[in-house]
Design a protein that fits this description.
It is a single chain. With about 100 residues, the protein is of the alpha+beta class. It has two domains: about 55 residues, no CATH class; about 30 residues, no CATH class. About 40% of the residues lie in helices and about 10% in strands. It has a three-stranded antiparallel β-sheet with strand order 1-3-2. A hairpin with a 2-residue loop joins strand 2 and strand 3. Helix 1 crosses helix 2. The chain is elongated. The protein starts with 8 loop residues before the first strand and ends with a helix.
Length: about 100
């Protein structure tokens, strides 16, 4: 008989302690509301929500305000990025 690998899961209290600000009055309720709405991913065991390590990392990534740098569009490759009229775009591309 083979045994399945053990998956580390966290309760809402553990997630709140690990990822949410300490001064919030009801962090478990905040998490539960977002899980019920489908804004966060988790799974239910009976009436309790559980999150895996990957789901906890996704929660932190979703609410992190640091985004990946966005490269400036190349105006020659994408003339619409300049806000040009159709005629000006055609002239730029034909040059």
């Amino acid at each position: 008989m083979t045994t399945l690998p053990r998956v580390e899961t966290f309760s809402l209290t553990e997630v709140a302690d690990a990822a949410l600000p300490k001064h919030w009055k009801h962090p478990e309720r905040w998490l539960r509301e977002r899980l019920n709405r489908g804004e966060l991913v988790g799974y239910r065991v009976g009436r309790d929500w559980r999150l895996t390590r990957e789901q906890l990392d996704a929660l932190i990534a979703k609410y992190t305000n640091v985004s990946a740098p966005v490269a400036a569009p190349d105006p020659i490759a994408d003339p619409t990025a300049l806000g040009l009229s159709g005629r000006s775009r055609r002239r730029l591309l034909s040059a």
